[in-house]
Design a protein that fits this description.
The complex is a heterotrimer. By secondary structure, chain A is mainly alpha-helical. In chain A, 72% of the residues lie in helices and 1% in strands. In chain A, strand 1 and strand 2 form a beta hairpin. The relative contact order of chain C is 0.17. The chains are: A mainly alpha, B mainly alpha, C alpha/beta. Chains A and B meet through helix 2, helix 3, helix 8, helix 9 and helix 18 of A and helix 1, strand 2, helix 2, helix 3 and helix 4 of B.
């Protein structure tokens, strides 16, 4: 087949000794950048991009792919070890990854994350290779109404009914959504909630600031308080033999990983959505379909595998709209897009026809980078786990320094560092009073997408609210969203129903 | 400690009111002609829901069977406050004295005085951290950290690394 | 010895740092030189047209060795650039900050009071003017401006024009079109030019006023059709697309791509950056990019540039006034 021949050419270049070395360097650098709270693939790519004019283009693409993958794998590392999601795509990984680390199973969680990322990435690249061109049309069918419906779906698969204290959950969701409206209102072009004209709020409140605040600083404060009474983090240790055993355990996770891969690819492919909703939906669905949903959030390994497969699959999927439509789905793909323009490539429907060398070179680099990333990641797991064995007074001090520096780095504003400290203290107090923090963070991530697409639809449809249900795609998404919302309720009704009177036909 | 629960609920209510007040700068109503909700509508009404829910949470604490969700070991209050104050001082110091003075000082305080570790560990970490930070952030990633008055000291380093 | 060792560690750690540190830089001019990395503030978020262009300049400067210190792009896109303007004002007298601007350089201070007067800033260089075209989806069958106007009128107010945020360039061009043809369209704001173009092709909006670079991919694939160019003369990249002037409507609008510096930057530093950008404007890479993206090269510096900025500000004040009077 045509595609395979082109791919083979791509592999021939990406497997040369020089390029293999570049992959290893890129993946390792990416891994550390991704593992650093606050930094992600976007920082790595931003640094490497200007270099792509100096080194040969094929090597440049490979370096970019390697850093991209390395950083995606790395995001899970800080989520699991420190409980701080390094990027919004890794939020869902903290829900079960962190509890596993606290139970001394950090090694297993890291293996699961690495293997899941590999599976997600691989399935996604295969789907990409086979169906890139026709799928571009699916992405085009997504307008604002569909985007809104999808975000709503992501929200409900995750939140649902039941679980924590409902009033407190609602308060946290509202708070997150309100915080997400800070900054410029795109629709009217006016600033809002800038609290007496503080310039730092013009750009809004970034997800990273809130996450580093509540999960980083807040967690440290919580650890300090509980350190006297409760036992500290169970010392984690891992031997090569355990690493091997852990790897063999992974075949139990095929269900979580297949949910994550396919969902991740398809959601990631949609321009506005990207990897964050994908990972949250995968987590939500894995929990809903699990035999043991109660164990999620308390260190269930499936809760690490599902979102990690999904976010890697989605990050690969998000390259599709970038290449075929020229729309970046994330800041990183936006930078890559800029790079392509500088290389004189015009992203769009013609790219696959006019520049096959570039496209297939990139795809084969993705395969190579993915293999290198999983190998290097697993080899480094013992080192990461060893870091957890530091006395907690040392670990806490280092985490606080990481929070300050990592909080400053993305937009280089002291304003953000102050916010992190504020969110840290507030997050600690809220957590003490049993307010769930995950809905707060989720709402801040999904809020801007939701409001924007909601209002865009209404403007385009002249205020007709029914537009959301009239369009077939968005209508069906909303129906599924409602179903997910009510699912826990239906389940509990059925349980009581079957115990009592037989359900009426 | 029901008092703490109540205080948090009251602060959330106050915060909601503050948000609502700021949100009214932009229209909060629904206008079918210009396409639905105005710019202030989302923050305003969501804050209103927040106000109502935290109000209910507050009322709940006065029910006869109310149980405190906020529990705390009062002896840990002092160390917690110490860390928060140290954090605030460090952040305030960064723009003035620079990150490469403020962060080692923080580590010095945390490890030696707060954590009670030996001088070897304290000094080595306090020295290694800024070096690694410089190499990772500035030399490799080209993200400059605030230097404050220490800026001139870094000019030779820039000349070497860039 | 110790220093070569650390250097080698960096080399091993990241290829990126190594290549930057190793790239030979040639001194551009005698006299003043930056002593530390130069912050290149971008008035827009990551991934937009302004961001892409600023990073292109960064790459050219690095590749050609036009500066001994690297340019570090920092995005401060908050509040349509209000954040960047305030930041630059606070950096008064600083010789190591420059800012990449677009038209929000005038419109943002005009629309909201942020305490910034752009007359105080130091002009460095205008690199180019970006152009605007009117686009429709090829499926619509519309090929001329007259057919377009007729189609909009037939639709009433339901004709959807997609563009960037309200108050930004696309909405101004839309208002000018509405005024010229006495029509009314529903303006749907999106996050960026790429998203606007995609919504046109997906039939979620009916027309756009994208920059050529944003719609080029779809144009090449025959999915987007340009009807008219809002430029003084026909664009070399679109020789068959008439200008609005040719058709008897005086709609000309361009997006300036310039660099400015904080108020009170030392003159020798201004001279340094001006000379640096002049070299950039003569580089092969830049010339190729200008031709491919249908930009109008328009290099301008010093007092002439400041005069241009102030004249443009007055022009935008008038456009904004007519929009507000109209709504």
């Amino acid at each position: 087949m045509d595609v395979l021949a082109l791919l083979a050419d791509g592999f021939a270049t990406s497997l040369s000794p020089l390029n293999l070395m570049i992959v290893i360097i890129g993946v390792t650098a990416g891994l550390f950048i991704g593992a650093m709270p606050g930094l992600g693939s976007v920082n790595g790519v931003a640094i490497v991009l200007p270099l792509t004019f100096i080194v040969p283009p094929s090597s440049a693409i490979i370096l970019l792919a390697a850093i991209y993958y390395g950083a995606m794998y790395g995001g899970a590392i800080s989520s699991i070890l420190l409980g701080i999601p390094g990027a919004s795509t890794a939020v869902a990984t903290t829900f079960d990854g962190r509890p596993m680390a606290q139970q001394g199973k950090a090694g297993l969680a890291l293996i699961a994350a690495a293997v899941a990322s590999f599976v997600g990435g691989t399935i996604s690249i295969v789907l990409f290779t086979l169906f890139a061109a026709p799928l571009a049309n699916v992405a085009l069918a997504f307008g604002p109404a569909e985007e809104f419906a999808l975000v709503l779906l992501a929200f409900t698969t995750f939140v649902g009914l039941g679980g924590d204290d409902k009033l407190k959950t609602i308060v946290m969701i509202c708070l997150g959504l309100v915080l997400s409206t800070v900054g410029l209102d795109l629709i009217s072009g006016q600033p809002r909630l800038i609290f007496g004209d503080i310039p730092g709020f013009y750009a809004g409140i970034s997800f990273l600031v809130l996450a580093i605040g509540v999960y980083g600083v807040g967690e440290v404060l919580y650890t300090i308080e509980t350190s006297k009474t409760a036992p500290q983090v169970t010392p984690a240790r891992i031997t090569w033999r355990e690493l091997g055993n852990g790897l063999r355990e992974m075949n139990r996770l095929w269900k979580a990983m297949s949910i994550g891969s396919f969902l991740g690819f398809f959601v990631g492919m949609l321009p506005a959505a990207g990897a964050t909703p994908a990972s949250l939906m995968a987590y939500g669905i894995a929990r809903q379909t699990s035999k043991n949903p109660k164990s999620f959030g308390k260190g269930n390994i499936e809760g690490v595998a599902a979102p990690e497969t999904a976010n890697n699959a989605a990050s690969t999927g998000s390259l599709l709209p970038m290449l075929t439509l020229g729309i970046p789905g994330s800041p990183t793909t936006a930078l890559l897009l800029g790079g392509m323009v500088m290389w004189g490539l015009v992203p769009g429907p013609m790219l696959f026809i006019e520049e096959p060398d570039f496209v297939w070179g990139l795809i084969s680099s993705l395969y190579t980078a993915n293999f290198a990333a999983v190998a290097i990641n697993i080899a480094l797991i013992p080192i990461f786990v060893w870091a957890l064995r530091m006395p907690f007074t040392v670990l806490c001090a280092i985490v606080l320094v990481l929070c300050i520096v990592g909080g400053f780095a993305p937009s280089q504003k002291m304003h953000d560092v102050w916010l992190i400290a504020g969110f840290g203290v507030a997050g600690y107090l809220l957590r003490k009073a049993d307010y769930p923090l995950a809905p707060l963070v989720l709402a801040l991530v999904l809020g801007p997408l939701m409001e924007k697409s909601f209002r865009q639809t209404l403007i385009a449809e002249q205020g007709n609210v029914l537009a959301f249900v009239e369009r077939p795609l968005s209508g069906s998404f909303i129906a599924i969203a409602l179903l997910f919302f009510a699912l826990p309720l239906i389940k509990s009704l059925r349980r009581t129903g079957s115990r009592g009177v037989a359900p009426a036909e | 400690m029901l008092t703490a629960d109540r205080l948090i609920a009251i602060s959330l209510m106050a915060l909601s009111l503050y948000f609502m007040w700021h949100a009214t700068v932009l229209p909060i109503g629904w206008n079918g002609m210009t396409g639905g909700p105005g710019g202030g509508a989302f923050p305003f009404w969501l804050s209103a829901i927040m106000l109502a829910c935290s109000g209910l949470i507050l009322l709940r604490t006065f029910l006869p069977d109310a149980r405190a969700s906020f529990t705390m070991d009062s002896t840990m209050l002092r160390p917690l406050l110490a860390v928060v104050i140290a954090l605030v001082v460090t952040i305030a110091l960064i723009p003035i004295a620079g990150a490469y003075v403020a962060l080692p000082l923080f580590l010095l305080w945390y490890l030696r005085i707060f954590g009670g570790h030996g001088w070897t560990l304290t000094l080595s970490l306090s020295l290694v951290t800024p070096v690694v930070t410089f190499l990772f952030f500035e030399a490799a990633l080209k993200i400059l950290l605030p230097k404050g008055i220490t800026e001139p000291l870094f000019l030779p380093l820039y000349a070497i690394f860039f | 010895m110790a220093h070569t060792f650390t250097r080698r560690v960096v080399l091993a750690m990241t290829a990126s740092a190594a290549m930057v540190a190793g790239s030979v830089t040639t001194a551009l001019a005698e006299g003043w030189k930056p002593q530390k990395p130069v912050e290149m503030v971008i008035m827009a978020g990551q991934g937009g047209g302004a961001d892409r262009l600023a990073r292109l300049f960064q790459s050219i400067i690095q590749k050609e060795g036009l500066s001994n210190m690297p340019m570090l792009p920092v995005n401060k896109g908050g509040g349509s650039g209000a954040e960047a303007l305030r930041y630059l004002k606070d950096k008064s007298g600083d010789a190591h900050v420059i800012m990449a601007t677009l038209n929000s350089y005038y419109t943002t201070p005009l629309r909201t009071d942020i305490g910034v007067d752009i007359a105080e800033f130091t002009p460095v260089a205008r690199m180019a003017e970006d152009t605007f075209l009117l686009w429709v989806n090829a499926d619509s069958g519309i090929t001329t401006l007259d057919e377009y106007v007729a189609a909009v009128k037939a639709e009433g107010t339901g004709w959807k024009m997609g563009g960037t945020g309200t108050g930004q360039e696309d909405s101004l061009v839309t208002a000018m079109i509405e005024g010229a043809f006495d029509i009314k369209m529903t303006y749907v704001p999106f996050q960026g030019g790429g998203e606007v173009a995609k919504n046109l092709i997906g039939n979620h909006v009916n027309s756009t006023v994208n920059n050529p670079s944003e719609a080029l991919g779809f144009y090449k694939a025959g999915k987007a059709v340009p009807l008219v160019a809002f430029t003084p003369e026909r664009l070399a990249a679109f020789p068959d697309v008439p200008t609005a002037r040719e058709l008897g409507h005086d709609i000309v609008y361009a997006m300036q791509r310039s660099f400015v510096a904080p108020p009170g930057m030392p003159q020798e530093a201004v001279d340094y950056y001006t000379a640096m950008f002049e070299k950039v404007s003569q580089s092969e890479e830049w010339k190729t990019y200008v031709a491919e993206s249908a930009l109008m090269p328009a290099f301008l510096t010093g007092d002439d540039l400041q005069a241009y900025f102030l004249a443009e500000r007055d022009k935008h004040a008038k456009i904004l006034e007519t929009i507000e009077a109209g709504s």
